[in-house]
Amino acid sequence: MSKVLLDIRNLKVSFFTPAGEVKAVNDVSFSINEGDVLGIVGESGSGKSVTAYSIMGLIPFPGKIVGGTIDFNGHRINDMTEKELRSMRGNEVSIIFQDPMTSLNPVYTIGNQIKEVILLHTNLNRKQANERAIELLKLVGINEPEKRMKQYPHELSGGMRQRVMIAIALACEPKLLIADEPTTALDVTIQAQIMELMTELKNKINMAIILITHDLGIVSRMCEKIIVMYGGKIMEQGTIDDIFYNPKHEYTKGLLRSIPKLTAKEHEKLIPIEGTPVDMLNPPAGCPFAPRCKKCMKICLKKMPEYTKISDTHYSACWLLQKEEYEKSTGVIKGE
Amino acid sequence: MGSYIIKRIAVGIVTIFLVATITFFLMYLVPGGPFLSEKSPSKQTIEALERKYGLDKPVYIQYLNYMKGLIKFDLGPSLKMRGREVVDIIKTRFPISAKLGGLAMLLAICIGIPMGIFSAINRGKWFDNIVMVICTFGIAVPGFVVATVLMYFFGVTLHILPTRGLDSPAHYILPVTALAFYPTAYISRLMRSSMLDVLGQDYMRTAKAKGLSQFKSLFKHALRNAVLPIITYLGPALAYILTGSLVVEKIFTIPGLGRQFVSSITDRDYPLIMGLTIFLAFLLITMNVIVDIVYKIIDPRIKLK
Fold first, then answer.
1. Is residue B78 part of a domain?
2. Do residue B229 and residue B131 come from a single domain?
3. How far apart are the CA of B211 and the nearest CA of chain A, in angstroms?
């Protein structure tokens, strides 16, 4: 059994906007072991990125962690000073952002931006840092690395820039890499290359990855564990097999139904999840998905259900499961 | 780069030629003449003077004569300040105005840029609010009010600073402050908005995620991107401030170039009007070329063609 690297308990993150408090992450708990790949899926605004940013202390203003704990490698991130956080960022925990076109500073060379993080966190001198940067560029599959070092971001394609971002993230061999929709802004062939590269590098330096995405295809290829988020809460979590072959939550089922199938007949329509995402300023009292759920019951609108344990690895928060469980344990069928 | 500069110089020469031509003919459309004043000289005297300066010839001949001189950098004699060449007037007066203007701009940059940065990082807090009120004030209040108020307080009431001329370093304090007032306010505002824009960029988040301190990410990653609009503003602003301000020079009795702009027009001192206009055009064009080059150095995405 490998060691727990990151343990998040009852994390709550809120954004205090002029219009009111937005509970972007509401009571989220999960953990990740060393070397594991965890996928967080969910639609826009479900709180997946905010969860990831809170690990690095990168929540943008006016966001704040209002509750819960984050333990990374035995240290409590909540209690860290800004200086301790800084020495962790880019060193033990790294992040790759969604848009490589804007994530690099346009006025500095690629080399400068990679060397910056090496010089900051290691004791290498400039010359060694330079060599290390070239080595990293080779590692992420960039040709003519010596030449690229002197180039500016605008002289590189989107895929290349994302590779540079990965090189920056891996510079100090982090224990945890957070990939925040790393391929959303790239075209499909480049997507596949980047994902392959990440898997390969993960095996080389044995780091854990949190992969945030709304692309279930990518998740199925890379991850061992999946968290499905909606409205700032975890709806269901489990292994790949749990989620793909035995989904329990109505939202997860909806997500899986909405994937286009290769075997689909011509003119076969995609099945969307009806309705609009939850209004985070005025979230419903009960399950956030209830207003869009086809099997919504009265209680769903009033109260958030507890997690039902389906197996050691598989948990889901749904009243239907609670009902089933109750019926199983008592033999009484609760009718309408 | 080299070919770009050559191209810009060629375009600059054409521009100066056009400016000279337009100014020349506009000037002649304005009624009045250089030798008319309250005690008008006799008709004979005026005719003699006009003959002396070639003003009796048809306009196009005068124009051709002037252009011939311009090619040889001869801007002709002043009609009002007898015996002085326009080139000499610029040579003696420009350094005075340029020194004042240069100091004022330096002051404006040294105060405006840090003030803008601190406002941006403390957005919405009391420091930002105070700076913004001061800046709005600085932009709205005209120069002659600032100059007079400064003069009244520090010169007349407190007697700690001289108010006339430029005899000692202390003499520079009031006029430089008065001159710097507007650009300081303007640069602060510009810097603040540009900085706010840059702070919201993704690469600033990357810098933070790398573990850089706020100071380092601000000065390495933000400043270089945020300073571009300031450079754009500085080019033409420098050209104007270096050639002097009528108001400040008049109030502090400084023999600079700024006053000449206005007096040359009221005097109908044709060669001086021409000379000053061409000189300002030349400075503006030069400053713009410098701005373009500096831009290219700061932002590698800029291509000079």
1. no
2. yes
3. 4
Determine the Cα–Cα distance for residues B171 and B105; give it in Å rounded to an integer: 17
Q: Do residues B143 and B262 share a domain?
A: yes
Total structural domains in chain B? 2
If residue A207 lies in a helix (H) or strand (E), which one and from where to where? none
Is B219 near chain A, with CB under 8 Å?
no
Rounded CA-CA distance A131/A108 in Å is: 18
pTM over 0.80: yes
Token duo for residue A308 = 């039902």
Which residues in chain B touch residue A133, judged by CB atoms under 8 angstroms apart? Answer: none
**B45 and B148 in a common domain:** no
Question: Around Cβ A47, how many Cβ atoms within 10 Å?
Answer: 25
Q: How many residues does chain A have?
A: 336
A120-A125-A131-A137 Cα dihedral, nearest 10 degrees: 10
The whole-angstrom separation of Cα B295 and Cα B305 is: 13
- Same structural domain for residues B18 and B128? no
The last residue of one of the domains, among B71, B101, B128, is: B71
**Are B148 and B187 found together in one domain?**
yes
pLDDT digit string (tens) for chain B, length 305 residues:
788 889 988 999 999 999 999 999 998 888 877 777 666 778 888 888 888 888 888 888 888 888 888 888 888 888 877 778 888 889 989 999 999 999 999 999 999 999 999 999 998 899 999 999 999 999 999 888 999 999 899 988 888 888 888 888 888 999 999 999 999 999 999 999 999 999 999 999 999 999 999 899 999 999 999 999 999 999 999 999 998 888 888 888 888 888 888 888 888 888 899 999 999 999 999 999 999 899 889 998 888 77
3-class state of residue A4 by DSSP: strand
Residues from A contacting B (CB-CB < 8 Å) are 56, 58, 60, 86-91, 94-95, 97, 99, 102-108, 116-117, 120-121, 152, 154, 165, 168
Residues of A with Cβ-Cβ distance to B209 under 8 angstroms:
56, 58, 89-90, 94-95, 97
Regarding whether B147 and B60 lie in a shared domain, the answer is no
Give dist(CA A61, CA A175) in Å, integer: 27
List CB contacts of A266: < 8 A, sequence separation 6 or more.
Answer: none
ipTM: 0.85
CB A10 within 8 A of CB A27: yes
Is the separation of the CB atoms in B147 and B178 below 8 Å?
A: yes
Structural domain that includes position B35? 2-71
B47 lies in the same domain as B143 = no
Residue B79 CB contacts under 8 Å (≥ 6 apart), including other chains: B34, B35, B53, B267, B268, B269, B270, B271, B272
Q: A145: buried, middle or exposed (CB in 10 Å: 19+, 13-18, 0-12)? A: buried
Which of A86, A104, A120 is the closest to B203 by Cβ? A104
User: Domain containing B128 — which CATH number?
Assistant: 1.10.3720.10
Residues on chain A touching B299 (C-beta within 8 angstroms): 106-107
